[in-house]
Amino acid sequence: MRTRPIMLIAATATAIATAAGVASAATGTPQHTATAHGKPSGNRVTATPAGFTVTSTRTSPIGAGAVAKILASCLGQDASNFHAVIAVRAPVATQDTDGVVIAVNSARQYVQCETKGHKGTSMSVPPTFINDRLWGTGHLIEFFDSFSEPAHGEQTLSLGAGHYTPDVARITISYGDNPTQYPALMADGAFVYTAALSGPERNSPSPYVHAYNAAGQEIYNQQTEPTTKQ
Question: Which pLDDT band, with edges at 50, 70 and 90, does 117 fall under?
């Protein structure tokens, strides 16, 4: 089932840390929420409720030439005003999607352009804009356009994107009631997560966004603070 744009609001934090450059790939190493005695876990496959398993969160980069074509397909004449900050292929492909490009312009408007295959085209027409209208006191993350769609076999692709304030140093994603958290890709104020899930698509677990400050403190947890605006 595909879920269209949702915006999340969280409490104000104080620490400042940002990621810079273009994020193009991630290993998808899972980790648990930090506690006084806890340590990050190593690479492993984890089960989620209703028979689901997170089989992979690994991504691969989309080449610069293809990224330019994807943005042109997605944005048309406005493509020259945007530069890509995250461009990755997902760990599994659906009928329509196997990757995503996040780009930003000089006005700090972010755009999400989904793609499939190596033809350099995007089905995101008109594109999904992850814009900055949410910003104000107490706002940390704007989380737009997440979806879960069936892939090959009994696999499901979970993909989402958004942007964040400088108060956020790290973003992770958990699935369903499983506490394991997987790092999102972060670059220049934008974030992306993807995961291949194994199990019946109709019972796909919900992804939950977690945000941490530079001191490692969790400053937002979507599962316990589901403050949203449609």
Answer: confident
Residue 83, strand partner residues: 104
- Angle at Cα 189 formed by Cα 169 and Cα 140, nearest 5°? 65
Q: pLDDT (tens digit, 9 = 90+) per residue, 152-170? A: 878 899 999 988 989 999 9
Alpha carbon distance 170, 10 (integer Å):
14
pTM of the model: 0.77
Tokens of 215: 């001191």
How far apart CA 47 and CA 180 sit, in angstroms, is 9
Look up residue 117 and give its two tokens: 């295959």
Neighbours of 166 (CB within 10 A): 14
Please, what is the Cα angle at 94 between 89 and 95, to 5 degrees?
Answer: 120
